[in-house]
């Protein structure tokens, strides 16, 4: 049985931002954040930084899940992230989920998408490289 | 003395933008500016850590800091406030920020076109010669609603 991270596995930053686990899509956790002032940029829209934080959190979450499933423990360290903003995030719940494109020994390449009411129409995507230090 | 003849004041604008919303939640503050650059400060916060059990600032707040500082640098370069949207933002996290330190985001709008603004910048925790992150970003100007031409 795969060890699956629950809300307690979220980073302190992610919890402070209000990010929660919505559901599992296979091995990939789907994260969500409700719209409130904590994530608001221009009135009634998501701040690009908050959307980026949701994408990063979903990226780390899928990596932790896959590492746990294979019995690996590692300290995750960010190398970089490139975010593409595709549409304005409106004043409603946003979701994000990641996919591991390449899992290496020392680093992982992860693609992440964020959406609101229609998963087929993402509001933002990201590519992340994450360093996995022996932990 | 170009600074004194400019209309867009990053210090005043920061107060306006950080009084509420995501920037207010992060506690972003004005730090410094020049003709085409702005520096904002993200004060250390205990609840913005990136890994349980480690005293390291998460990467998300740095991304938000740099996004906000990028917008300020663009408005400074345009010398006016107008609606812009982030199109592409890349952050390279070159080292962890020191525990307990503010992180400063310094961004420069190095090219403005009719529709796009190009930004580069760095984040540091006290010494800009030893950055914690580098960024590249492109923003799009949001066109005002279509001109109402030929209306009687």
Task: Give an overview in words.
The complex is a heterodimer of chains A (135) and B (152). Chain A is α+β, with helices and mostly antiparallel strands and 135 residues long. Chain A has a single domain, classed as Thiol Ester Dehydrase, Chain A. Chain A is 21% helix and 41% strand. Chain A contains 2 helices and 6 strands, in the order H-E-E-H-E-E-E-E. Chain A has a 6-stranded antiparallel beta sheet with strand order 1-2-4-5-6-3. In chain A, a hairpin with a 2-residue loop joins strand 1 and strand 2 (28-33). Chain A starts with 11 loop residues before the first helix and ends with a strand. By secondary structure, chain B is α+β, with helices and mostly antiparallel strands. Chain B has a single domain (2-141), classed as Thiol Ester Dehydrase, Chain A (Roll). Chain B is 25% helix and 32% strand. Chain B contains 4 helices and 6 strands. Chain B has helices at 2-5, 10-17, 21-26, 59-78; strands spanning 29-33, 37-42, 84-93, 103-112, 116-124, 133-141. Chain B has a 6-stranded antiparallel beta sheet with strand order 1-2-4-5-6-3, covered by helices on one side. In chain B, a hairpin with a 3-residue loop joins strand 1 (29-33) and strand 2 (37-42). The longest helix of chain B is centred in the middle third of the chain and has 20 residues, at 59-78. The interface between A and B is medium-sized, with 32 and 35 residues. Strand 3 of chain A pairs antiparallel with strand 3 of chain B, so a sheet runs across the interface.
Average pLDDT score of chain B = 90
User: Which strand order do you get reading across the main beta sheet of chain B?
Assistant: 1-2-4-5-6-3
Helical run tally of chain B: 4
Main sheet attributes: strand count, strand direction, barrel closure of chain B: 6 strands, antiparallel
């Amino acid at each position: 049985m795969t060890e699956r991270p629950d809300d307690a596995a979220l980073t302190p930053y992610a919890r402070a931002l209000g990010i929660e686990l919505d559901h599992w899509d296979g091995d990939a956790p789907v994260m969500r954040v409700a719209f409130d002032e904590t994530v608001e940029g221009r009135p009634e829209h998501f701040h690009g930084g908050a959307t980026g934080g949701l994408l990063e959190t979903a990226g780390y979450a899928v990596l932790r899940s896959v590492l746990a499933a294979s019995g690996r423990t590692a300290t995750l360290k960010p190398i970089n992230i490139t975010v593409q903003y595709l549409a304005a995030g409106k004043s409603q719940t946003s979701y994000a989920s990641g996919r591991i494109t390449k899992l290496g020994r020392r680093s992982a390449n992860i693609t992440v998408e964020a959406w609101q009411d229609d998963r087929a129409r993402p509001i933002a995507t990201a590519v992340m490289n994450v360093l996995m230090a022996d932990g | 003395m170009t600074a004194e003849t400019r209309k867009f004041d990053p210090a005043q604008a920061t107060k306006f933008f950080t009084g509420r919303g995501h920037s207010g939640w992060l506690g972003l503050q004005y730090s410094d500016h020049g003709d085409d650059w702005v520096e904002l400060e993200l004060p250390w916060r205990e609840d913005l850590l990136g890994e349980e059990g480690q005293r390291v600032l998460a990467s998300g707040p740095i991304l938000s800091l740099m996004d906000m500082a990028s917008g300020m640098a663009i408005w400074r370069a345009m010398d006016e406030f107008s609606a812009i949207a982030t199109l592409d933002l890349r952050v390279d996290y070159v080292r962890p920020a020191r525990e307990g330190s503010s992180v400063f985001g310094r961004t420069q709008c190095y090219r403005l076109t009719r529709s796009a603004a190009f930004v580069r910048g760095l984040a540091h925790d006290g010494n800009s010669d030893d950055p914690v992150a580098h960024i590249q970003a492109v923003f799009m100007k949001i066109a005002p609603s279509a001109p109402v031409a030929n209306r009687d």
